[in-house]
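Worked example (supplementary).
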Amino acid sequence: MNRQLRLNIWLNLVYLGRNYLIMAVLGIMALLFIVILSMFSSGGRGAAGMFIQLHSLVSAAAFLAAVMIVHNPIKDRTVKMIITKPCLPDEWAAASFLTVNLISIVLHLIILVFAVIMFAARPDAMGMDPSTYIYIWISSVMAVMVFSSLLLFLTFFMPPVPAVAMMILLNNVVIARIMDYCFNYTGGMIMGIFYKIIGAVFYIIYLVVPYFSMENIMQAGQSADKDWPHLAVFTAYGFVTLGFYYFMSVYVVKKRNLI
Amino acid sequence: MIQLNNVSVYFDNLFKSTRVKALEDVSLTINRGDCFAMIGQNGAGKSTAMYCLLGLIKPQKGSVTIDGMEFELGSSMYNNIGYLPEEPHYHDFLTIDEALYFYSGLYNKTVTKQQRDEILGEMGLFDQRYTRIKKCSKGMKQKLGIAQAIITEPDILFLDEPTRGLDPIISRYFKQRLINMKQKGSTIIINSHVLSEVESLANRAVIIDKGRVVLQDELINITNSGEGRYQVEYEGKDVKRPAYLKNSRTTGALVTGSIPEDEFHEFMMFLNKNKLKLHKCLLNRMTLEDSFFNIIKGDSNEPSTEA
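After joint prediction of all chains, the assembly is encoded as:
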């Protein structure tokens, strides 16, 4: 890893490490670990729900990092101090994407290690088999990667609140409904063509905007027939999405006024 | 050689309904080893010109080159560039030492902890090196800015209002450091309102007004663009005064007044011829400030906007 990339990741981690919101999320995670441990020690069953909550918290921590990591340097103009040194905007942007995914993977790994210990100690208390958990774990890692990539990209040109609002509005269910309405329009011919064009535009957005629902992932993981090929495709889609939003972000950062 | 070739920069609003001219057809040439000053009023376009030179703004028209190559932000060309921004846009969650570690680390040069400690000592920041930037005073931030700009001893140094908020001791030290860097061949580009500071450092300057270059020349030519005058005082109230003696008045037996610098020889001949005794003779040369006022004076007060 080159020096500039490494230093920017270090900078991002220091920033997040000194951020109270991130620390609060990590604090709640630590509390949940204690709750899970107490459940196990008291002989309780069905810790799967707790693990799912842990995954949700990891997602929240990663999304929070994604929301803050890019917007603040642009808003505070501190990025000016980086790109007027031998550090390409590409490297700065890459460091942001890598930091968020690094946080996500490290936190996921902590949960995985914890789960492995639990499976070894009390497999019956977990409420699911190891393969189900592995399925959920991989899905969760990839979902955070996909979702945080879009969030990061949005924060390159808009403040966090509109970015999050857009994330909520631009979900696949809403887009699918708009597409459905546009493609099934039965009015006049000219308006029909107009709606088809609008529908096509939303179809492109539908392809680009990732879909994220931790609940659905859990349901898929806990179903009897885990769709492993689908997970493989989703994993590939995750990496493609990451690359796509990274290059889009680099394009934006090179175009926008950073003074 | 760093060049701005016929550069025009405009700032549009979101819907491009209004356009503010920041620079218009500006051409600058900065030779290697120059200490080049950019002078102008607030909003004249100095900072915009510096942003163009740094590659932070891509001009709508014209080009910016360094040794014939176009700037690309963050490229290896920046390995030899130091930049002190006007506003302290530093990562304020870092400590002073961490910030210096980070900024100097981005260069492809090795900066040791000892070097960091040395420059922090020189800047009077060593004892506060573990203080977070957000808790630093404006002067401390400026010192940090200077430290990060010069720690790698860059070949080209961009300084935007360098002595703003600095105490006189560090200010003098910094000036000496710049003189040393200049002697070693560094190119220094200064944007400053403190004309006395510019005068003591720069060898070339440009005066920018309302986004246009008014004058670009050697500093010595700019300060000599208006002639100097001698303030004289001599005994000889009864002798007819020469025509070139201006603002003359008589106090007792003494005559005081001012003469143009190039009439000095003639004036000495006049004193000799009339056997008059000279009491006082002081040469008042034009300062950069005088020249700046003379050049800018007469321009309309039409506002222009600077980024």
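Two points are worth noting when inspecting this output. The interface with chain B takes residues 3-4, 7, 10-11, 14-15, 18, 73, 76-78, 80-92, 254, 257-259 of chain A (CB under 8 Å). Chain A has a mean pLDDT of 84.
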